[in-house]
Write a structure and sequence with these properties.
Layout: H1 12-15, E1 46-47, E2 51-53, E3 62-69, E4 72-78, E5 82-83, E6 85-91, E7 97-104, E8 129-133, E9 138-145, E10 149-155, E11 163-168, E12 176-179, E13 185-191, E14 193-199, E15 206-214, E16 223-230, E17 233-240, E18 244-250, E19 259-265, E20 278-284, E21 290-297, E22 303-312, E23 318-320, E24 330-332, E25 336-337, E26 348-350, E27 361-364, E28 372-374, E29 378-381, E30 396-399, E31 404-412, E32 420-427, E33 430-439, E34 442-453, E35 459-470, E36 475-483, E37 490-497, E38 504-505, E39 510-512, E40 523-530, E41 537-546
Antiparallel strand pairs: 1-25, 2-24, 3-4, 4-6, 5-27, 6-7, 8-9, 9-10, 10-11, 12-13, 13-14, 14-15, 16-17, 17-18, 18-19, 20-21, 21-22, 22-23, 26-41, 27-30, 28-29, 29-41, 30-40, 31-36, 31-41, 32-33, 32-40, 33-34, 34-35, 36-37, 37-38, 37-39
Length: about 550
């Protein structure tokens, strides 16, 4: 995925000037090669699944890379400035997914990712790659950071723990990692000029790199590499943002020569108001069937995965199976073995009973781990003195479930100090929140709007109060509802309760912007920050994400 900056002449901003948004990528898995172990031959206990509908995950998982290891599917996604980064998703049927863990435990790439005198918004974890190496039974995550260098993390289990294996001086932009059938590691990467690198056997250093393809000017930008070996042929799957997908094929080896074919262009997608499915890849099931997992721009919610069956031409090119000339809103489900268990839902209740946060949660930048704790509820102590939520550390985020969903929080605010601000936000480059302001020893519930950033991700508005009400006692329930159907600015609404049963709307609707340039979609966010002095705290005893 390409990050175009005002002073950095990259291509995606130019390519998408007239587009509605930027989609993300998925992945492919080979038969005789590499990107995942195929496991034993399938047994007779297959169940004919019913239809599935797109999107298969209506949450923001951008630039996804997907592999199969035995009977289990794994995927990785972009998270930019959120920490921990690069979530690892898990599925047994390509349709139902859970979050298993994160490949990048902390964004230790510089002080800006700590909100320490600088900020890392729209930086950090971009399009990256996930692979499995059967020879050492190890998962590999590879991604470049800030156009400076490439990092590789490894783990023997997808849920972790993950640790850094190495840092490589070459920034492998929008990379795809291939574990070849002879166990050699290759990386395809680049923007329009596509290169292939070979890594050392231990994966720690670069052995060689070579340019293998230059995109014709008639096509435009190609990026988002995914690298595969299928039936002895090498393939590099590439996206044309944000409306096309192309593939390169070589029968002469990983360094080419490559020929190119268009996979799709301006294809009608499965989400009304959304974009063209693209920046994805292919995965082969245990049963030999192939699927393409792509992404649809669906702002204000972000980029969401959609799945379609794939067949192959006699001469080895993939063909997406369409429904009435479009990416289908529904297809027959993959015929796969019965799952060993049901995956954990991405909605529901969290009472923060464990000392570690569940994998559904990610912080806005790295947290100050001395200022929060979990177990019998989540305690957020003030970690920053600021009047700007975008500078406040320890803001904890959760993806929004589409097409509409509601987050409800039970908050104990008895530990707040004068000047503190705590609550529940709809967080993006234009934000709003409902929460508690404490002043003069008294607490009020307030609805705040006008939190904004410019295109360089500098704060242009710190917010202003739109409505308020007195709240008796030390507990309050806060609620935010979000409509993230794409195609237009959508409403977010806020309400509160003093008993957890009867909720009162507070303030006007919030218009959720659908511009793509922040890349990540809106999130629900829990926060507590000081405007005068540290020392205050709040306790979240319950968080519930529900759908109608």
């Amino acid at each position: 995925m390409n990050m175009s900056w005002p002073r950095q002449p990259l291509s995606r901003r130019r390519a998408l000037t007239a587009a509605t948004g930027l989609a993300a990528g998925a992945v492919l898995l080979p038969t005789d090669a590499s990107r995942a172990a195929t496991g034993p031959a399938p047994g007779p206990d297959r169940v004919a699944a019913g239809e599935y509908t797109n999107p298969v995950i209506w949450q923001d998982f951008a630039d996804i890379d997907v592999i199969r290891v035995g009977d289990t599917y794994y995927a990785s996604a972009s998270t930019m400035h959120y920490s921990p980064g690069a979530p690892v998703l898990r599925s047994y049927d390509l349709v139902h997914w859970e979050i298993a863990g994160h490949s990048v435990p902390v964004l230790d790439f510089g002080a800006k990712y700590d909100l320490n005198a600088a900020r890392g918004y729209v930086r950090g974890i971009w399009a990256s790659s996930l692979a499995y190496r059967p020879s050492n039974r190890t998962f590999y995550w590879l991604g470049q950071i800030d156009f400076a260098r490439t990092y590789i993390y490894t783990a023997t289990a997808a849920e972790g723990p993950w640790s850094r294996l190495t840092t490589i001086g070459t920034p492998y932009y929008d990379a795809g990692l291939l574990v070849d059938s002879d166990d050699t590691l290759y990386v395809a990467y680049g923007n329009s000029t596509i290169s292939v690198a070979q890594l050392s056997p231990d994966g720690r250093t670069q052995v060689r790199t070579q340019q293998v393809f230059t995109t014709p000017s008639s096509v435009g930008t190609l990026e988002g590499s995914r690298f595969y070996k299928i039936n002895g042929q090498y393939y590099i799957f590439l996206t044309r943002p944000a409306n096309g997908q192309y593939i390169l094929k070589s029968s002469g080896g990983p360094f080419g020569p490559y020929t190119m074919r268009q996979v799709l262009l301006d294809l009608r997608g499965p989400i009304p108001g959304g974009g063209v499915p693209h920046q994805g890849g292919l995965v082969q099931t245990q049963n030999g069937a192939w699927y393409y997992l792509a992404f649809v721009d669906a702002y204000p919610g972000g980029r969401v995965p959609a799945l379609a069956p794939v067949t192959w031409t006699w001469d080895g090119w993939p063909v997406v199976q369409l429904v009435n000339g479009a990416w289908g809103t529904a297809y027959p489900g993959p015929a796969l073995p019965a799952p060993p268990r049901q995956v954990a839902p991405m909605t529901g209740v969290d009472t923060f009973d464990r000392t570690a946060l569940g994998p559904r949660w990610e912080w806005n930048h790295n947290p100050d781990n001395t200022k929060w704790s979990a177990g019998g509820g989540l305690t957020l102590r003030t970690a920053t003195v600021t009047g700007d939520l975008y500078w406040a550390r320890n803001t904890l985020t959760h993806r929004i479930q589409g097409p509409t969903s509601t987050a409800t929080v039970q908050l104990d605010h008895s530990g707040m100090r004068d000047g503190d601000r705590a609550g529940l936000a709809l967080l993006r480059d234009s934000s709003a929140w409902i929460g508690i302001k404490r002043e003069g020893g008294a607490a009020r519930v307030v609805r705040v709007g006008g939190l904004t950033m410019d295109g360089d991700w500098n704060t242009t508005g710190t917010g202003y109060e739109l409505a308020s009400a007195a709240v008796p006692g030390d507990r309050v329930w806060l609620r935010a509802s979000a409509d993230i159907r794409p195609g237009a600015a959508r409403p977010g609404t806020f309400s509160y309760s003093t008993d957890g049963i009867t909720f009162t709307r507070l303030g006007p609707d919030f218009s959720m912007g659908n511009d793509w340039r922040f890349f990540m979609g809106y999130r629900f966010a829990l926060f507590n920050h000081a405007t005068r002095a540290l020392g205050g705290s709040v306790r979240v005893t319950r968080f519930e994400l529900s759908t109608p």
